[in-house]
Amino acid sequence: MRRRQARRSPLHPALLTASIALVAGVSVGGSYALWNGAAPISGTEVRSGTLTATVAVGDTGSPTATLAAFDPAAFADMLPGEVRSATLTVGNTGTTAFLVAASLDAASAASPYLGWALAPGVCTAPAGAPVQLAASPQNVGDALPGSTFASYCLTVTLSPDVPASSAGTTVATFTILLDANQYRP
Predict the structure, then answer these.
(1) What is the pLDDT of residues 63-82, one digit of tens each?
(2) Which residues share a beta bridge with 119?
(3) In what order do the strands lie in the sheet with 83-92?
(4) 69 FRET partner, CA 20 to 30 A, in 38, 45, 50, 88?
(5) Other Cβ atoms within 10 Å of 163 Cβ, number
(6) Other C-beta atoms within 10 Å of 28: how many?
């Protein structure tokens, strides 16, 4: 009797390997879902914009100036107890609202006989209470919306207690530093 040998196809091991690879790929590919997820978030708002501040002496704003100089004569020859003022205008040429914060340079803030204050509005009719300026910034007035200008009144006061030995002296320079701090309602 003749035994018949079973013929093996060379494709069979290749099919077996492909089947194993397919099963492995499906089981590994399915595990990616464990690392993905999504959930809706309510009440969130994302905005972008620009914050650009300008300054000018007087009641007319500048669209580009970032430095402004007062006329030295505005504060020259002050007498003890005298108060002088000058208007400056801050512009927000950007799209994001900001608060104006003001401070003095260290030397001016340390002066015992001079006082500086800044109030919203023009000097002839201030719209808000003056803020006494010091070395650290303090907010002055309400937020300034984008594409607007607002005037502020700078007031300089010479103390009535200034000694006679200071007569004829001048404050060489004083610097008011203005910060534009983004306003988030």
Answers:
(1) 999 999 998 888 888 889 99
(2) 153
(3) 53-57, 83-92, 148-158, 114-120, 131-132
(4) 50
(5) 10
(6) 9
Angle at 87 (CA atoms; ends 94, 137), nearest 5 degrees: 65
Cα–Cα dist 185/150, whole Å: 19
Tokens 């590919």 map to which residue? Answer: 29
- Name the residue among 113, 117, 116 with its Cα closest to residue 159: 113
How many residues are given for the chain? 185
Reference 103, options 135, 130, 131, 132; nearest CA is: 135
Question: DSSP letters of the chain?
Answer: -PPPPPPPPTHHHHHHHHHHHHHHHHHHHHGGGGG-------S---------EEEEESSS--SS-S-----GGGGSSPPTT-EEEEEEEEEE-SSS-EEEEEEE-HHHHT-SSEEEEEEES-TTS--S--EE--SS-EEEEEEE-TTEEEEEEEEEEE-TT--GGGTT-------EEEEEEEP--
Higher model confidence: residue 171 or residue 101?
A: 101
The amino acid that residue 137 corresponds to is: P
Tokens of 122: 């023009």
